[in-house]
Design goal:
The structure is a single chain. This protein is α+β, with helices and mostly antiparallel strands. The chain has helices spanning about 60-75, 85-95, 105-110, 140-165, 170, 175-200, 210-225, 240-250, 315-340, and strands spanning about 1-5, 50-55, 125-130, 135-140, 225-230, 255, 260-270, 280-290, 295-310. Helix content is about 40%, strand content about 20%. Strand 3 and strand 4 (about 135-140) form a beta hairpin. Helix 2 crosses helix 6 and helix 6 runs antiparallel to helix 7. It is elongated and about 85 Å long.
Length: about 350
């Protein structure tokens, strides 16, 4: 139902209007002639100037959605970009996160009004109903698409330059990490845009860096951010070691008494009286804050609360500490990594 196409569409078939020509030799009872694009988009939209996709549905909305999907599949056949990253980019643009990084609004306006990054500028040109099924054709004009996608790539490159063009002294920081992670997301978006240009046969701007370049930069920044870990009421540093292990799994190195970033935690143990139980119970709680000591800002708060029991109180306490250790090792890395992936760079 789809192919690369081009040529001026016939009069009366633009803007998503349902086709109702005067001829009545269409399907029985419909009184509508079947448009040529239903069977072959090339018959209406010459492939030298257009890319078109046809979709069907039980109603008009379903047919239009199907048409956009058919059009998008033409580009995604050769697309290697991570779709999760692509979604992150769209959300960032729609939430206004790129507005302060560029003076050109072409990216924002185009992305905000499109259903997908590889459908910027696409439109429904015609809809037809045979009495049972709705048909729709989604179209992208190649010349306009080439101009639009080239401009978006150029705008994104300016954003990447602004994000990464920071002094070396500011690089190994949480803001530096956020900048390079965001640059990676934008570079992934540029990969999608470049793919569209390649599919329609338009030249791709030179000098595009691969997203992995920024991904590696971000990993290098994490490795060069030392984090001081301190835990109050921690016997034998067991909780501290659990936090240090979790930080290491997230890519950080621990130590340094003068570290800007610190994980300050407190372990609390208290007996819990449960009259209906023969076991002794110890309630444990841990409050741990990832702090920027330069600003005294709590970047990532973390807490756990639970209890452990045993006939012997000392063993119940030992079990509580072990349970706290295990939870930190199992949960903290994942929670911290989720926080880091959502960091927003500051202008």
């Amino acid at each position: 139902f789809f192919s690369g196409c081009a040529g001026a569409p016939p009069a009366g078939r633009e803007g998503g209007n349902i086709s109702v020509p005067e001829a009545v030799n269409g399907p029985a009872g419909s009184g509508v002639m079947k448009p040529a694009w239903v069977d072959s988009t090339d018959a209406v939209y010459d492939r030298n100037s257009y890319v078109a996709g046809v979709g069907t549905g039980r109603d008009r909305a379903g047919a239009e959605q199907s048409a956009f999907a058919a059009l998008s599949s033409i580009f995604r056949q050769s697309l290697q970009a991570d779709q999760t990253i692509s979604v992150s980019y769209q959300e960032a643009v729609r939430n206004g996160l790129t507005e302060s990084w560029t003076e050109n609004t072409s990216v924002e306006n185009a992305i905000k009004t499109s259903t997908a990054m590889d459908l910027v500028g696409a439109e429904i040109r015609d809809v037809w109903n045979d009495g049972v099924t709705f048909y729709a054709v989604a179209v992208m004009e190649k010349a306009r698409t080439a101009r639009l996608y080239t401009q978006m790539i150029q705008d994104n490159r300016k954003i990447i330059d602004a994000l990464t063009g920071i002094p070396a002294s500011d690089r190994n920081s949480m803001d530096g990490l956020a900048r390079f992670q965001f640059a990676m997301v934008i570079a992934d978006a540029n990969q999608v845009f470049a793919n569209v240009l390649s599919v329609i046969g338009a030249p791709v701007p030179e000098g595009l860096r691969h997203p992995d370049d920024y991904r590696l930069e971000a990993l290098d920044i994490i490795k060069n951010i030392p984090v001081l870990v301190t835990v109050e009421n921690d016997r034998e540093n067991r909780v501290r070691n659990a936090f240090a292990s979790a930080l290491s799994s997230a890519g950080f190195r621990t130590g340094g008494n003068n570290s800007r970033y610190q994980l300050r935690a407190r372990l609390s143990l208290s007996e819990v009286e449960l009259p209906t139980q023969t076991n002794k119970f110890i309630r444990y709680s841990i409050e741990g804050n990832f702090v920027d000591s330069a600003t005294a800002e709590i970047l990532f708060p973390y807490s756990i609360v639970d209890r452990e029991g045993h006939p012997v109180l000392s063993e119940a306490e030992a079990r509580a500490v072990r349970a706290a250790e295990n939870k930190i090792r199992e949960e903290y890395t994942q929670s911290l990594s989720a926080y880091l992936s959502q960091l927003i760079p500051q202008r």
